[in-house]
């Protein structure tokens, strides 16, 4: 699975506030993950994003890990935050989930998973009426927040397990 | 119990005498004197070393100064680990003061996370607390708290205010009487001789048949290597806050009294010193 993603480096936002408090999450049991790499040329203004899906034993939900780099250098939280769509930024500020966090071991950012159960609950309720692909549905919610847009071609999959 | 509250205070006020020396290759305008500081075990390096930075900046030019980072005997010190854990893991059996080298260049991108501000530390701290509560109470207690309560936990840590911190933290240490303990115990076991940063698994404080799990039970289950057989000489030390608790200690008690402010039991397994 690959995706094209070209982000301009853009200007840093000066109104960067406390809301982007990074968190850490490290899970010992990594029940597989799909890696989705976005490859691009080496010209400046291009960002390489890497995504992993892992399972959190503490929260009992999937977790999205990602990292962004440009010209081989990791982007810091501020840069990542700047690339989050303004609409998503506003939503994140008010919760329900707090933050994009930085991950231990290797430098990954992680979307705080503590609200996953909350927004997935209605989906699980539907599951009893028709089959639902949890991961694809979940990813369609959290992915866009970190620049990962699932193509619409995935939508039939949400009806299959 | 009065005794148990004393334990909470002893843990909170634990300090490590530390000597900070500037790395020899840093460019200075004149000789840099070492800087001595008592580091709180329960805090984080980047939260308590402003004085260290100020001290060395006096002898350096601004253009030679990037993000400060530390190493001990060649190992980069992860600021997101509690200070006491770093010491127990890397310097337990060395002489005091703890000798840490200070750097302002060549930040080790692969080993360390950047820490551009205190809000980064706050987020990390709150994230650990949230994860711990997910394990202990399915996040019910932390979610019932308001934002200002969360802030109080952080401010208590940041400003070294035991009472302010524990006024809120005691809620995170409660459990329904009929349960006998938390749902799962938040712990991490750190190993020096391993690629793996730490072991973290789901582990209950009480067995289904009502048996109270001890530290020994935990280790037997998740890292049996740490426990030696009676006839063998002890190869490893299991250290929490600089001490080796008895393996018979109930895990629930350890979780309530020897956790770090982030509500995790950070356990170091280090090679026993060979006499």
From TrEMBL, chain A:
Q: Which InterPro entries match?
A: Atg3/Atg10
Superkingdom, taxonomy of origin: Eukaryota
Write the record's keywords in alphabetical order, separated by commas.
Autophagy, Transferase, Ubl conjugation pathway
Which Gene Ontology terms of cellular component type are present?
A: cytosol
Q: Which Gene3D superfamilies match?
A: 3.30.1460.50
Q: Name one GO molecular function term.
A: Atg12 conjugating enzyme activity
GO process terms (BP): autophagosome assembly; autophagy of mitochondrion; protein modification by small protein conjugation
Region annotation (Disordered) ranges: 1-24
Q: Does the keyword Transferase apply?
A: yes
Q: Point to the regions of Basic and acidic residues compositional bias.
A: 1-19
What PANTHER family does the record tag this protein with? UBIQUITIN-LIKE-CONJUGATING ENZYME ATG10 (PTHR14957)
Family, per entry: Belongs to the ATG10 family.
Instruction: Spell out the protein name for this chain.
Output: Ubiquitin-like-conjugating enzyme ATG10
Automatic annotation (TrEMBL), chain B:
Which domain of life does the UniProt lineage start with?
A: Eukaryota
Pfam families in the record: ATG5_HBR (PF20637), ATG5_UblA (PF20638), ATG5_UblB (PF04106)
Q: Where is the Autophagy protein ATG5 UblB domain?
A: 184-269
The membrane spanning regions, by residue number, are: none
Instruction: Note the subunit structure.
Output: Conjugated with ATG12.
Entry keyword set: Acetylation, Apoptosis, Autophagy, Cytoplasm, Immunity, Isopeptide bond, Membrane, Ubl conjugation
Q: Does the keyword Transcription apply?
A: no
- Family listed: Belongs to the ATG5 family.
- The identity of this protein, by name, is Autophagy protein 5
Question: PANTHER family under this entry?
Answer: AUTOPHAGY PROTEIN 5
Domain (Autophagy protein ATG5 alpha-helical bundle region) spans 120-174
- What does the protein in this record do? May play an important role in the apoptotic process, possibly within the modified cytoskeleton. Its expression is a relatively late event in the apoptotic process, occurring downstream of caspase activity. Plays a crucial role in IFN-gamma-induced autophagic cell death by interacting with FADD. Involved in autophagic vesicle formation.
The residue stretches assigned to a coiled coil in this entry are none
Q: Which GO terms describe its biological process?
A: apoptotic process; autophagosome assembly; autophagy of mitochondrion; cellular response to nitrogen starvation; immune system process; negative regulation of programmed cell death; piecemeal microautophagy of the nucleus
**Annotated compartments:** Cytoplasm; Preautophagosomal structure membrane
Membrane topology qualifier = Peripheral membrane protein
Q: Where is the Autophagy protein ATG5 UblA domain?
A: 11-104
**Which GO molecular-function terms appear in the entry?**
Atg8-family ligase activity
Where does it sit, as one GO cellular component term? Answer: phagophore
Q: Chief subcellular site?
A: cytoplasm
């Amino acid at each position: 699975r690959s995706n094209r993603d070209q982000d301009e480096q853009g200007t840093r936002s000066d109104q960067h506030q406390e809301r982007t408090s990074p968190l850490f999450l490290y899970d010992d049991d990594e029940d597989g993950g799909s890696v989705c790499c976005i490859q691009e040329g080496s010209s400046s203004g291009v960002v390489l994003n890497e995504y992993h899906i892992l399972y959190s034993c503490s929260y009992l939900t999937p977790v999205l890990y990602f990292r962004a780099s440009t010209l081989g250098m990791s982007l810091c939280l501020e840069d990542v935050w700047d690339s989050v769509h303004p609409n998503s930024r506003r939503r994140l500020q008010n919760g329900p989930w707090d933050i994009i966090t930085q991950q231990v071991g290797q430098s990954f950012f992680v979307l705080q998973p503590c609200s996953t159960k909350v927004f997935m609950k209605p989906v699980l309720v539907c599951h009893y009426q028709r089959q639902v692909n949890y991961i694809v549905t979940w990813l369609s919610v959290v992915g866009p927040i970190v620049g990962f847009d699932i193509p619409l071609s995935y939508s039939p999959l949400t009806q299959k397990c | 119990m009065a005794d148990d509250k004393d334990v909470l205070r002893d843990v909170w006020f634990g300090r490590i005498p530390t000597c900070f020396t500037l790395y020899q290759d840093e460019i200075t305008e004149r000789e840099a004197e070492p800087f001595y500081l008592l580091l709180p075990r329960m805090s984080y390096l980047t939260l308590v070393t402003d004085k260290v930075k100020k001290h060395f900046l006096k002898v350096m030019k601004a253009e030679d100064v990037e993000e400060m980072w530390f190493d001990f005997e060649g190992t980069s010190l992860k600021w997101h680990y509690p200070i006491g854990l770093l010491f127990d893991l890397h310097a337990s059996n060395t002489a005091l003061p703890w000798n840490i080298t200070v750097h302002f260049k060549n930040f080790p991108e692969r080993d360390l996370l950047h820490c551009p501000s205190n809000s980064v530390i706050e987020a990390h701290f709150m994230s650990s607390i949230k994860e711990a509560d997910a394990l202990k109470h399915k996040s019910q207690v932390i979610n019932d708290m308001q934002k200002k309560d969360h802030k109080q936990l952080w401010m208590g840590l940041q400003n070294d205010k035991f009472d302010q911190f524990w006024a809120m933290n005691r809620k995170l240490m409660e459990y329904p009487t009929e349960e006998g303990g938390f749902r799962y115990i938040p712990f991490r076991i750190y190993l020096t001789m391993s690629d793996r940063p730490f072991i973290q698994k789901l582990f209950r404080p009480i067995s289904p048949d009502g048996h109270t799990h001890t530290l020994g039970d935990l280790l037997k289950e998740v890292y049996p290597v740490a426990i030696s057989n009676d006839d063998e000489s002890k190869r490893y030390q299991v250290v929490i806050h600089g001490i080796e608790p008895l393996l018979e200690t109930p895990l629930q008690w350890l979780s309530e009294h020897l956790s770090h402010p982030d509500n995790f039991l950070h356990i170091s397994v280090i090679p026993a010193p060979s006499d």
